[in-house]
Amino acid sequence: MYIELHASSAFSFLDGASLPEALVDRAASLGYPALALLDRDGVFGAPRFHKAATAAGMRAIIGSELTLISGQPAAGSRQRVAYARRGAEGGGRGEPEPGARGSLPVASSKQASHAASGELPAASYSLPLLISSRQGYQNLCRLVTRMKLRAPKGEGALVLEELEGHTEGIVALVGREALRGSRHGVGGLVDRLVGLFGRSNVFVELQRHMIREQEADNIALADLAAAFHVPVVATNGVRFASPEDRPLYDVLTCIRHKTTLDEAGRRLSFNAERYLKPPAQMAELFAGLPEALRNAEALAERLQYTMADLGYRFPDYPVPPGETLASFLRKMTEIGARERYRPYHDRARAQIARELDLIEKLGLAGYFLIVWDIVNFCRQQGILVQGRGSAANSAVCYSLGITAVDPVGMDLLFERFLSEERGEWPDIDLDLPSGDRRERVIQHVYEKYGEHGAAMTANVITYRGRSAAREVGKVLRIEAAQVDRLAKVMHHFEFKDEGETLAKHLGEIGMDATAPRMRVFAEMWGRIQDLPRHLGQHSGGMVICQGRLDAVVPLENASMPGRVVVQWDKDDCADMGIVKIDLLGLGMMAVLQDSLGLINSRRPPATQALGLWNLPQDDPEVYRMLQAADTMGVFQVESRAQMATLPRLKPERFYDIVVEVAIIRPGPIVGNMVHPYLNRRAGREPVAYPHPSLEPILARTLGVPLFQEQLLRIAMVAAGFSGGQAEELRRAFGFKRSERRMKQIEVQLREGMSRQGITGKPAEEIITAISSFALYGFPESHSASFALLVYASAYLKAHYPAAFYAALLNNQPMGFYHPATLVKDAQRRGV
Fold first, then answer.
1. Got the DSSP string for 497-528?
2. What is the pLDDT of residues 742-786, one digit of tens each?
3. Within 13 Å, how many C-alpha atoms sit on residue 539's CB side?
4. Cα 555 to chain center, whole Å?
5. What distance in Å separates the CA atoms of residue 95 and residue 98, rounded to the nearest whole number?
6. What is the rounded CA–CA span in Å between residue 480 and residue 260?
């Protein structure tokens, strides 16, 4: 059976119109047992492709189209390559360039001079590569890393000679585009590739897109294959899943070339043939060359490498002689617990023992020690640090000084942080003072684990409402003023209200949604949503590796000097089992560090230094300030919405601050949970539960679900979700959740609740709560960590106002208020 060995996704960034999942869906519907994804200059879409193919019962074949140039870059140069991508078929509208009609060119004298001088010509071509082994995958990653790290962000290319020594486990395809762009001329490129890859690993690629000139080139390519005794292979050079995707591909082509549909001309695809075709259709196209079809099937069978065999290892922590990772972690935890818990009571002992047993069973001791090592570096350098997120649920993290919230005292759910069923690494976020101090920590990690051993995770920037409107509007030559007006009324948030339709927005600015150009605009605007635009840099996620990280995933330069990113985002890294540590910059951490520095410099030498973890608890003045909404400059609770809520909530203890931090969020607001909670707290409404089985979960928040952990436990109790299903729900809560996946989970919830006898209004209340938290549901552990910073900043404002305001003003801009307003507030407090 024919198998497509050359498909590109939208992760070729404007050179593909379908997400990897859409290609897999189409291939599965056509009965393909396997499919190859070759995105441009990287493996950006490989994790999503692998995950989707595995779920569909297909084999995901990995590869990439590498950009090559004729010539030789100067050693160590920051290479700039203007890769024009001459058109979808290798020339404008699929036609060869002038002077090359029906024949394959030889190297020109101009190209030869470029090669001799080391200049970089504009001419370039792509070389499709397919992976057959882990060694081949590692070679591909290192080749991509080489081309990317010496080039500005988003650019880069290789010359053919640089492939030498990096071809084991890789199969090369050579087609009409490569032969037209190479300086080696007819036969020269095939001869060089055979020398580099071996004759059995070079295939001449034939495609049939109903283009006359392409057929003439196919004859020449077949003759070339026979002359060099290399096999031919049929592919379709797929750029989109279905023929209906061709208009979107044309729009993306125009965006890439910064032109309009009216002016793009020969840059556009000649026709809609580059879609994923049924195997029978490919067999009919290549009926006269059956060996090209047989070779595609046989080659696919050779390409057995899977992303499940990535070979990633987290670094080993160097423990003292006679210690194991587990024993050393136990020793350090015991020392820290005796310092943190005074007295070291039985509940804390039991919780720590339970956590350490699971950490050892899962082989995670080294991870905790490495995070602890980063925290120790911060302390040695005098940099304030605090763990947050689900790590605040761990008594081991608290004992090691990674977090500052006592999870035993707060009865936080450890399983939200770590459980056997989750099947992935725990996630520890470290808050650091923003600015130079955070950068020192990041550079320390780079230095400790080496140039190729550490990198930031990427952030995939996608087309959303406003950016999509602007780009599609330009392509369709809609007046700039109209596009600007439209973009300004687009819904800015990730959440999509059913009432937020494009026709509604067009009507708001006086545009006719039924006009032909507007109908095209509406369709293309909708179809471009969520497609990747480019890679950005995650706010603080770092990944580290035992050995070379560029053997696991390609690295490339970020736009910020001194930063390197991997080609995957945090979700991709999690799916591939790569560990991420977040080093996040927080302005309030800088304020607290500077405040505490000023305070401790004036304390008697014998007095214990004041820190986040030993602030006096339940200070009455702090709660008086909060109840009065005297919170200008206080972390998280200085907005107008928070100030309006504080007098109604009337915080009296630390957990009330935890609730306050979480309640003014899109999840509780859209889920209509704010007013019921406040009314019940004030006694104006009785405490009630959607179902009696949920009382143990919701009693603490008066029957109102406010935290992500509560929603996960509700799904397990009310719908019978397993821990694994609850974890899938948690991941679907994410900022870039899949709406389709959320709908599938909703079906599972309804079915599960029906089996448990929960139907009607109670079931709808539970669905509403869970759906609302798909927005920005706040984890309780995250809220607890932030609540500590609320308490700390309020405590310092109340008792050390001079130090607090000095630090706050020195770290502007931050927060909601102009410095002059903060000065007036300080004067009001006697500073």
1. -TT--HHHHHHHTT--TTSHHHHHHHHHHHHH
2. 777 788 889 999 998 898 988 888 887 777 665 556 788 889 889
3. 8
4. 15
5. 9
6. 13
Sort strands 34-40 and 555-557 into parallel, antiparallel or unpaired. unpaired
Instruction: Judge contact between 783 and 416, C-beta under 8 A.
Output: no
Single-letter residue type at 35: L
CA distance 253 to 524: 13
The partner residues of 63 in beta bridges, in order of sequence, read 38, 130
Under 8 Å between Cβ of 537 and 565: yes
Tally of CB atoms within 10 A around 284? 10
Nearest to 6 by CA among 58, 65, 47: 65
Q: Count the neighbouring beta carbons within 10 Å of the beta carbon of residue 751.
A: 12
CB atoms within 10 A of CB 366: 22
Residue 91 has pLDDT above 90, yes or no: no
What is the value of pTM for the model shown?
A: 0.84
Matching residue, tokens 């929603």: 711
Closest to 487 (Cα-Cα) out of 504, 473, 501, 507:
473
Q: How far is it, in rounded angstroms, from Cα 503 to Cα 518?
A: 9
Rounded Cα gap, residues 269 and 94, in angstroms: 7
Q: Which residues pair with 433 in a beta bridge?
A: 586
Q: Which residues of 335-353 are buried (b: 16+ CB within 10 A; e: fewer)?
A: ebbeebbeeeeeebeebbe
Q: DSSP of 341-372, one letter per residue?
A: SSS--HHHHHHHHHHHHHHHHTT-HHHHHHHH
Distance, C-alpha 278 to centroid of its chain = 32
Do β-strands 34-40 and 564-569 pair in parallel, antiparallel, or remain unpaired? unpaired
Q: Which two tokens stand for residue 18?
A: 């379908």
What are the angstrom distances between the C-alpha of 508 and each of 511, 512, 527, 629? Answer: 8, 10, 22, 38
- CA 27, CA 4: separation in Å to the nearest integer? 9
Contact 547, 490 (CB under 8 A): no
In this predicted structure, what is the pLDDT of residue 118? 33
Strands (DSSP E) along 405-531, which ranges?
428-433, 454-462
Q: pLDDT tens digits for 406-444? A: 999 888 878 778 877 766 678 889 999 998 999 999 999
Q: 380-401 b/e with 16+ CB inside 10 Å = b?
A: eeebbbbbbbbbbbbbbbbbbb
| Residue among 132, 214, 134, 210 at smallest CA distance from 173 | 132
* Token duo for residue 260: 């309009």
In the Cβ-directed half-sphere of 142, how many Cα atoms lie within 13 Å?
19
Are residues 754 and 748 in contact, defined by beta-carbon separation less than 8 angstroms?
no
Q: What is the DSSP letter of 490?
A: S
Q: What is the DSSP string of 88-136?
A: TTSSGGGPPPTT-TTS-----HHHHHHHHHT---S-EEEEEEEE-SHHH
Instruction: Rounding to the nearest 10 degrees, give the CA dihedral for residues 712, 714, 720, 724.
Output: 10
CA distance 154 to 143: 15
Angle between helices 640-649 and 674-681 (to 10 degrees): 30
